[in-house]
Amino acid sequence: MGLSFIAVGWTRGLSSRRFIGRYKSLEELRDVLKLDRVTSATARRFYLFEECPPSESCLWLLSFDIKLVKVKRSKGSSKPYRKPSHEYTFIKEMLYSRLCGSVDMSTYVCFDDESFRVRGYLDLVAPGFYKLESYHVRPYDGKTLDLVRRALEEAVEELAGRAEQLALRLRSLRPGNRARARAGALKLVEMLRSAIEVARTHRGEIEGLGLAGVESKLGGALELLEGALGA
């Protein structure tokens, strides 16, 4: 069987039958379509990725659906499950620390297969109520390549921007009022260190995407934040 194409984008209100010749099953991801071929309609409508052979150095597309999450038992709590909310933010933080870019709130492009990290978290908070898939891919066309670049650039900019804001806040607070800001800064330091490690490991792939200065921007943000912590 040949390699497939992965289509991502806005699918709400659209029939999957129009694009893949059948209705999707309940076990399939909501906002991802797996195609055997590319048509002019799918090329216009979606961002397209081509699956890569396992031996090739490509990106990873990770997507998940969360139906429900467990509710922590507390006095007055009657429902054992609720709809997901901050879980999406937690996963975003986790994946940004691995230098993944956000395509949307439940789909990310990464340099490594980070699905095991997300799966470990979802097994704890939403056991039996989530779907998760990862695909070894390359951008199919220029439109999708631009999407990948933007997603990765936004991740880098957000990490660096948060470091600058936290550094300024730490320097402006009196020592006795810095505890909460310091805790957030220490967490961000670990995120930056992790992202820098990924950037160093995948320097060639990052340059191949046409992205410049990723390591230096993250490294500068880390140095700024560590300086503020030590001040």
What is the mean pLDDT?
A: 87
What overall geometry do the principal axes of the alpha carbons give?
globular
Radius of gyration: 20 Å
| Residues in helix, % | 40-55%
Strand order in the sheet with the most strands: 2-1-3-9-4-8-7
Specify the structural class.
Answer: alpha+beta
The separation of the N and C termini measures 60 Å
**Got a strand count?**
9
Number of helices: 8
Low-confidence stretches: 13-28
Instruction: Give the helices and strands as they follow along the chain.
Output: EHEHEEEEHEEHEHHHH
Q: What fraction of the residues are assigned to beta strands by DSSP?
A: 15-25%
How would you summarize what this structure contains?
The chain has 231 residues and is an alpha+beta fold. It has 2 domains: 5-139, no CATH class; 145-230, no CATH class.
Helix-strand blueprint:
Layout: E1 5-8, H1 17-20, E2 32-35, H2 40-45, E3 47-51, E4 59-66, E5 69-70, E6 81-82, H3 86-96, E7 101-104, E8 107-110, H4 115-125, E9 130-139, H5 142-172, H6 179-201, H7 203-208, H8 214-230
Antiparallel strand pairs: 1-2, 1-3, 3-9, 4-8, 4-9, 5-6, 7-8
